[in-house]
## 1
Amino acid sequence: MADPCFIDANGHRTWLKWHRARRTVTDPEFTASRILEAMRLGASVEVDLVIHADGGFAILHDLELDHATTGTGLVRDTSAETLRQLHLRDPNGEPIAERVMLLEDLCALLSAHPAHPDALLQLDFKEDRTRVDARSIANFSAAVSPVAATMILSGGDAEAVAALAEATPGLKTGYDPTYPDVLHDLKTPQHFADFIQKALETAPTAEMIYLAYDLVLAANAQGVDLIAAVHAEGRRVDAWTLKETNPDSIAAALRLIALKVDQITTDDPSLLIERLNEKLAGSLA
């Protein structure tokens, strides 16, 4: 069985990104064991960053601790020492043995266990520029600089990403212009064309543009190829997120692969790659 890293089809490689460091849909989020596994295999893997009370970064998605950890309250009000004592929860809400990691903990692990040359760890910053100050920039740079070559920093606030990346030589950046209900605002082919042009202008140095997969497919239905527009600027596209592996998500993935998307974000890369390989093999039979 193929490692859940990428699909080659029609002369193009599409990576399957392990969303929140999950190999399967039943995995807990952000466990050190899965992150190290992905990086050893040469996969693309994503973790989220939230700033804590000491001006560093916790590997968490939510601004609150209650749902994903054994803690309570806001991450921004919680110290690094306290965060390190908290356990993560599994998808059923049960505590697991692995604890919350801080960014420096993760980077130390990667330094001790060098990644495969093809591996890429996405650091997805979940806050905005108002939360980034001199202390957080210094903490970020100190943690990431030793392993920056294996990482890409992304977020929905291009200024926040730029501020952190400028202090961290060798770090790649990405930008996600998607916002809630974006499809309600994009009604015509020109709307879609203007949207992607604005995204490219907003983040001129971003190597990867992160787009909701249904946005990409809705644009294509109106004759606008957002992926081709990004490729024309020498950049790459990640389409997010296929949460389950079912007939609808498989069909969406096949459409994205046909459009030559560079990366598909999925919560279930292990099963998705199996089903996609079956479909692609059948189409060639």
## 2
Amino acid sequence: MTLPITTLALIGTGMLGREIARGLIASGALPPERLILANTSGTPPHGLPCRTTTPAQAAAEADALLLCVPPAAAPRLGITTAKPVLSTMAGVTLARLTELTGSTRVIRAMSSPAAGDGLAFSPFTAAPGATADDRALASALFSALGTTAELPSEAQINVFTAITGPVPGFVAFFAEAVQRYAEAEGIAPETALAATRQLFLAAGQMMASGPAPAEHVQEMVDYAGTTAAGLEALRASPVAELIAQGLAAATARARTIG
């Protein structure tokens, strides 16, 4: 599915911007000649066959803008436009986006570098000034990068900054704990790493289309095998509460980082 616009200015070519560009091109949503990249240096990022210019020039030429710069760089964008402006900047509110760009047609989203492989979950929320066409653009754009959902309130974006933005941060932390346990039991580090990677690869694929995570857990508990013993111990521990504390800390930071 191609995007319902002629050209998109993607402003910010760091890790997230590059992966979003790669995902849009790979999915066929935008051919390279319809994607204008922009950064402060005007230097093309390696491996992307798109024209690269300055943010102001890209904003002047494109039909819509997607801001992927770090929140600290937002005040230096130097953009004034009435066009639709989509943003993946953590913590930068809809009101602040209007202040920075002059546009009332602003949409705030959260995505992740998994967008390059079409695996991101990129929810978004729109300001009152955004039109139905603007929201349709956001839905099409973020669907090309994985899956998306329009949220009923802006406050919820901060939660997704914690649970979908940091791929694979929180999952990698749990995987690290599994690997360290195996190594402590005498397993060679390279074998422990290979097993851990396969565990999380298989788990991710199974949960992507099968039952919900809670149902997977209950299935294993009901089977009453070795995994059930481990899961019962985890259920009896404070680990779920500690994970929630970590996510809450990330969400709280999202409210102030912008």
## 3
Amino acid sequence: MPEMKTYEGGCHCGAVRYQVETDLAKVVSCNCSNCSKRGLLLNFVMPDRFTLLSGDTDLVDYRFNKKVIEHLFCPSCGIESFARGRKPDGTAMIAINVRCLDGIDLAMLQTIPVDGASS
């Protein structure tokens, strides 16, 4: 079972960098149009477990469908390394693109399929 650890991650060019504390026990593979086209694998954390280290003022926000999730990406390299949103009950959350975490062996993770295309 994965353990709670602090990871660092960010975009391809390094302009956006963050730290996140999570256990990677639940990694979501969503089939919505955005996630599937970008190849996102997501892990969700509370905002107090996420620290944006650099790039905050440069992030570009893209919203689609219900327009409630801030899909944030680097304007230089185009990578969406995380997003901000709310759970259905209104609680704030951060969606981490696990592919953007440093040193992660994706083959060792168990992914959970989610049907976001039908939402």
